[in-house]
Design goal:
The chain is mainly alpha-helical. Helix content is 69%, strand content 0%. It is globular, with a radius of gyration of 26 Å. Belongs to the SAT4 family.
Length: 315
Amino acid sequence: MRCRPPAAFSFFSYPCPLLVASLFGGRTKAVAASQVSMNINTSIAIQAVLLALALVVLVLRSWAHYLLKQNLLNLSDIFAWLGWIFSLGWFICSTLALLILIDNPAIGSELVVNNVEYLKTVLVAEYFFDTGIYFPKISIVLFYWTLIPRVLETLRRVLLGISIYLGAALLASVLTNTLICLPFSDNWSIENQLKSAWNSYPSFCIQWALNFSTDLLIFVYPFFLLKHLRLRKEQKIGLIGVFSLGTITLIVSLSRFIAYNVTNFELEDESGNTLTLAEMSAAVIVVCLPGLRTFIRLWQPHKDWSGTDIEDWLT
C-alpha cells in the first residue's frame, strides 16, 4: 500500500515509513558497495607497491652480484627470483579474486562467496603463497652452505638439519593444501566451500606453524657464527644488524597470524591478501638487502673495505 502524504506535505513532519526505508536502504547498500570497491582498489594498489618494491631490491641485488662476481646469477639468486615470481603469481590471483568480490561479495556470518571462478582463483593463490614463501628461505640456506667452511663441522651438521626440515616443511605444505579437502573438487564447490583449503582454519594453522618455525630456525642459526669470526666491535654490531633483518619477516608473519585469529578467521580478503603479499615481499627484500653493500663500496671508493666480507671474518 502506497503512503499518501497530505497536501501540505513536510517530509520531516509526516514521514512515509516505507518510502524512508526504501530510500535509506538503497542508499546504505550503495554506500556499502562503494566502500567495498574502494577497499578492494586500495588493497590492490598497496600490493602492487609492495611487489614493485621487492622487484627493485631484487634487481639491485642481481646487479650488485654481477658487479662483484662478474656473473649474473647463482643458485641462491635464482631462488630469490623464484620467490618474487611466486609473489607475482599471488598478486595476479589476489587481484582477480578481489575484482570478482566487487560483483559477488562475501555473504553471511561465514563470509561465503558463491562464485566458482573465485574459489578456483583463491585455491591457486593458496599454492602460490604456501610454496613461494619457502624460496627466499632456500636462498638464505644456500648462501649459508657457501659461507660455512668444512672445518666447522658442527655448524654444517646443524645446517644440514635445518635444510632437511626446510625441505620437509615445503613438502608438508604442498601436501596439506592438496589433501586437506577431499575430494579435491570440493575446493571450488559452492556447497562445500567451507571445507576448502582456502577456508580451512586447521590448514591455516599448519601452514603458519611450518612457515614461522622455518623462519625462526633460519633467523637464529647465523648468531652461532659469531664466536667463529674475527671481529672488531663495530663489525660485530654491524653483523648483528644484518642477521637481525630476519625479525622483519617474523614480525610480519606473526602479525598476519594474529590478525586472522583476532577476527575469528573472518578477516576480509582485502586486508588478508595485503598482509600475505607483505610477508612474501618482506621475505624477498630481507634476502636481498645484505647483498646491496656492494653499492656502498662504490659510493665510497676511497675507503678501505678489505676484510669487511663475512667470508673474510671466518676463522
